[in-house]
Amino acid sequence: MTERDIIKHINDGANYYVSLFGKAEHMEIVDRGCYSYVKPKADEHGISIIYNVCIDNIPLEEQKVLISEMKELQMPIWLDLTVSDEVFFQVFGRKKVHGQTEFNDNDEIYMALLPDMKEIDHISSEKIIKVQTEEEFAAWAKIANGVLANGYSDMHPVHHYPLCKDGIMKCYILFNQSVPVAVASIIDNNGIASLEFVATVPEMRRWGFAKTICKQAVQDAFDDGAKIITVRAINAVAGKLYQSMGFKAYNYAI
């Protein structure tokens, strides 16, 4: 698999991940042709974000109109890693970084793991369950939302459960002395997987729980036939965790 293929899978994984927020009865997906966004329906609560932006190959004046239109929505915007420097600057007002190999604490790191790159060792005996029931999904969502969304229900404990039930999102909970303390999930898009929603409750960090649950999720994904697993580390600390599992950073190839 070439680096270009891997970067494309990272892009596709991010766009697919965002689209899943909209696949719940209280949410909607709006497709504007050159971009899409998810948002909650009227009188509902949930995440709002613009994604799947495809404006590189249209005339400059049309680009400017569409970018102005997106900004008026006042939503976060995800741009593919291969977006042009010009579009990146118009959207974010700063230069795009190329060939990054060193990372500051708050840099996002784009990573991937192929089956032959995976670290092979024994998975801890800590109790990890793969979420099956709506009650288990609610417990998973409580930690994911509490850690990653400041308590807001980005992943609705009821309305997003069908993603788990249907196997699109495979969710895991790690227990310490019968108390749920860490979560993770694998999102499967026809064998191209992404590791998402990795979170540990604050008081239980630095005990290795995040690495333990991620290794279980990754192992299961490869056992299920995943050709690649991508992840977007939200900071350098997370990047080091994934790197310790065999994930490789591809910022340098962007």
- The DSSP helix count reads 7
Poorly predicted runs are none
Task: State which percent range the strand residues make up.
Answer: 15-25%
| CATH architecture name of the largest domain | 3-Layer(aba) Sandwich
Structural class: alpha+beta
What fold name goes in the CATH topology slot of the largest domain? Aminopeptidase
Radius of gyration, whole Å: 18 Å
Return the string of H and E elements: HEEEHHEEHHEEEHEHE
What does it look like?
The protein is α+β, with helices and mostly antiparallel strands. It has two domains: 3-99, no CATH class; 113-253, Gcn5-related N-acetyltransferase (GNAT) (Aminopeptidase, 3-Layer(aba) Sandwich). It contains seven helices and ten strands. It has helices at 3-21, 60-72, 85-92, 134-148, 161-165, 209-223, 236-244; strands at residues 27-31, 36-40, 49-51, 109-113, 127-130, 169-176, 179-189, 192-200, 228-233, 248-249. The chain has a seven-stranded mixed β-sheet with strand order 5-6-7-8-9-4-10, sandwiched between helices. The protein has a three-stranded antiparallel β-sheet with strand order 1-2-3, with helices on one face. It is globular and about 60 Å long. The model has no long low-confidence stretch (mean pLDDT 94).
Topology:
Elements: H1 3-21, E1 27-31, E2 36-40, E3 49-51, H2 60-72, H3 85-92, E4 109-113, E5 127-130, H4 134-148, H5 161-165, E6 169-176, E7 179-189, E8 192-200, H6 209-223, E9 228-233, H7 236-244, E10 248-249
Parallel strand pairs: 8-9
Antiparallel strand pairs: 1-2, 2-3, 4-9, 4-10, 5-6, 6-7, 7-8
